[in-house]
Specification:
This protein is an alpha/beta fold. The protein has two domains: about 160 residues, Lyase, Ornithine Decarboxylase, Chain A, domain 1 (Beta Barrel), CATH 2.40.37.10; about 240 residues, TIM Barrel (Alpha-Beta Barrel). It is about 25% helix and about 25% strand. The structure holds ligand LLP. Ligand LLP binds next to strand 14, helix 10 and helix 11.
C-alpha cells in the first residue's frame, strides 16, 4: 500500500506533542480521484466540466451534486469497449442503484450499455426515460407480483431469480400474460469481496441468491427449466462492492464453472453468465483499484480458464458496474458554516468544519466508515494546513462527511468545499433526516449545466403531511 500524502487517516494515533505529517500540496487535485475535466482556475477556484464551482453554487445553491457528463460517458464507453474484447464479448449493464435519473438513463442508452434495476421504482425511471426494455435486467430479492407484472408487461429483457418461491411467482405471471420470461438464476457462491480483500466461506449467510454449496441453485435451475413460461438463460453472481482486483472473482467463477458442468450433465447449457458489479474506485490516494481494461482482461482470462478446466462452453458474459461509472464523475459542493477548533487529549487541535449538508446527502462515511478526499474549492490559499473533520448540520455526532482532512487554516464561513467521488451511492441513498431537503444534481459539460434532479424544497416535504396547510 502506498503512503498517504494527504496526512493522517481515521484511526491514526498521535503521540502527545508530536506533529502529524503535513501534506505537500494540501489543496492539490490528486490525480485519479477528481472528474477528468477538473482543474483550478487562475484564482484557485475549482472548475469541473468547464464550470467554475462558485458559479454553480451561486446558480444552484449548496449542497450540490455535480456530475461531469464527459467523465461519465467516458467511463461507460471504457466499460463497453474493454468488456467487448476477448472470446466472450460481454454485455455491460449500468447498475442504477448507484445513481439514476432519466438523464442518466439516456446517457447509458446512448453509450450502448444495458441497465440493471433493482426495484419497480428504478424500473419506472428507466421506462420514463424510454430506455429500451429489452436492455434492462431486473433484480430484487423480494420482487412483488406488481413489480414482476410491470417488468413482464413492459418487456424487460431479463429477470434475475433470487429465490425458489420467485420461480413460481414469475412463472405464474408470465403464464397469465402469455409471455415467456427470460431468467438468470442468482447463485450464492460463498465468496464475499470488498476492496482488495475477499473471503471464501463454505456457507452463505446472507439474503441474496440460491446456495451453490447446498445444491439449491442446481435444483432451482431444474425447476426453472420445467416451468413452461420461463426461459433459463444462465447464471448470475455478485460477490461484493468496491473490489480492487480479480482474486474474489476467480474463486467465484471457478465455483460457477463447476456448477455449470453439473447443469450441463442435467441437460442444460448456460448461454449467459453475469458476474455482477463491484469494480472499485479511488476515493483517496490510498486506493489503488485495477483499471477498467486490466480488470476486464483479467476477468476474461479467469472465465476462459475456469470453463476450460470444468469442460463447459464459454458463455456470453455480462457485468453490472455502478460505482465505477458514476462514482468518480461526481463531486459534492458544500458551503462552510461554523468552524470550531477542539483540543484533543494529545494536545493537538482538530478543527470541526460544519457544512450545509451532511449524513442526509452522504451516509457512506457514517454507514461504512468510508473515506473521502476534500479540498477548498472556491479560492486558493497559502495558509498552513490544519487537521480538520468535515461534519454536517444534522443533530447527530456521527454526522461526519470526511473524518480526517487537511484543509487550509484560513478556512472561513462562506468558503466552498468540494468532496470527490460522490457520484455513486450518495444522492441515491440520501434522506431528508431533520427535514433537510435533498440537494439538486446538475451535470456539467463544456461550460454548460443541465439540471438532472432539482433541489427538494421545504414545501416538497410539507406536501407529504396532510396536517400542514397547503
Ligand atoms: N449488481 C448487483 C447484483 C448488486 O447488488 C450491486 C450492488 C451492483 C451490481 C453494483 O455494484 P457496484 O458496481 O456499484 O459496486 N451502498 C453501498 C454499495 C452497495 C452495493 C449493492 N449492490 C456503497 O455505498 O458502497
Amino acid at each position: 500500500m502506498r503512503a498517504h500524502p494527504a496526512g493522517p487517516r481515521h484511526g491514526d494515533v498521535f503521540t502527545p506533542g508530536a506533529v502529524p505529517r503535513m501534506p505537500a500540496g494540501v489543496n492539490a487535485l490528486e490525480p485519479g480521484i477528481w472528474p477528468t475535466s477538473s482543474h483550478r482556475a487562475s484564482g484557485g477556484s475549482l472548475v469541473v466540466g468547464g464550470c467554475d464551482v462558485r458559479r454553480l453554487a451561486a446558480d444552484y445553491s449548496t449542497p450540490l451534486f455535480v456530475i461531469d457528463e464527459v467523465d461519465f460517458r467516458g467511463r461507460a464507453a471504457d466499460f463497453r469497449d474493454s468488456y467487448a474484447r476477448g472470446p466472450a464479448p460481454a454485455t455491460v449493464y449500468y447498475a442504477a442503484k448507484a445513481f439514476l435519473a432519466t438523464t442518466i438513463a439516456r446517457w447509458v442508452e446512448q453509450e450502448g450499455l444495458g441497465l440493471d434495476v433493482a426495484t419497480g421504482g428504478e424500473l419506472a425511471v428507466a421506462l420514463a426515460a424510454d430506455f429500451p426494455p429489452d436492455r434492462i435486467i431486473m433484480h430484487g430479492n423480494n420482487k412483488s407480483l406488481e413489480e414482476i407484472e410491470t417488468a413482464l408487461r413492459s418487456g424487460v429483457g431479463t429477470l434475475v431469480i433470487d429465490s425458489v418461491p420467485e420461480i413460481d411467482m414469475v412463472s405464474a405471471v408470465a403464464l397469465r400474460l402469455g409471455v415467456t420470461a427470460r431468467v438468470l438464476v442468482r447463485v450464492t457462491v460463498g465468496v464475499e469481496a470488498h476492496t482488495h480483500e475477499f473471503i471464501a466461506t463454505a456457507h452463505e449467510d446472507q439474503k441474496f441468491g440460491l446456495s451453490l454449496a447446498t445444491g439449491e441453485a442446481r435444483d432451482a435451475v431444474a425447476r426453472v427449466r420445467s416451468a413452461p413460461a420461463l426461459h433459463f438463460a444462465g447464471l448470475h453472481s455478485h460477490i461484493g462492492s468496491q473490489i480492487f482486483d480479480a482474486s474474489g472473482f476467480e474463486i467465484a467463477t471457478s465455483r460457477i464453472a463447476d456448477l455449470a458442468a453439473k447443469i450441463a450433465s442435467d441437460g442444460a447449457s448456460i448461454e449467459e453468465l453475469n458476474l455482477g458489479g463491484g469494480m472499485g474506485i479511488a476515493y483517496t490516494s490510498l486506493d489503488d483499484p485495477l483499471g477498467v481494461p486490466d480488470m476486464a482482461a483479467a476477468l476474461e482470462r479467469i472465465v476462459v480458464k475456469s470453463c476450460e478446466r470444468a469442460g463447459v462452453d464459454i458463455p456470453r458474459l455480462s457485468f453490472e458496474p455502478g460505482r465505477a461509472i458514476v462514482g468518480p464523475a461526481g463531486i459534492t459542493l458544500y458551503q462552510v458554516g461554523i468552524v470550531k477548533p477542539v483540543e484533543l487529549d494529545n494536545g493537538l487541535v482538530r478543527t470541526y468544519v460544519s457544512v450545509d449538508g451532511g449524513m442526509s446527502d452522504n451516509i457512506r462515511t457514517a454507514l461504512y466508515d468510508a473515506d473521502y478526499t476534500v479540498v477548498l474549492a472556491s479560492r486558493e490559499s497559502s495558509a498552513p494546513p490544519q487537521l480538520c473533520r468535515v461534519v454536517g448540520k444534522h443533530c447527530e455526532s456521527g454526522d461526519v462527511v470526511v473524518r480526517d482532512a487537511w484543509l487550509p487554516s484560513d478556512l472561513a464561513p462562506g468558503d466552498l468545499l468540494a468532496v470527490a467521488a460522490t457520484g455513486a451511492y450518495c444522492r441515491s441513498m440520501a434522506s431528508q433526516y431533520n427535514y433537510v431537503p435533498r440537494p439538486a444534481v446538475v451535470s456539467v459539460r463544456e461550460g454548460a449545466t443541465t439540471t438532472i434532479l432539482r433541489r427538494e424544497t421545504q414545501a416538497d416535504l410539507l406536501a407529504l403531511d396532510p396536517g400542514a396547510p397547503s
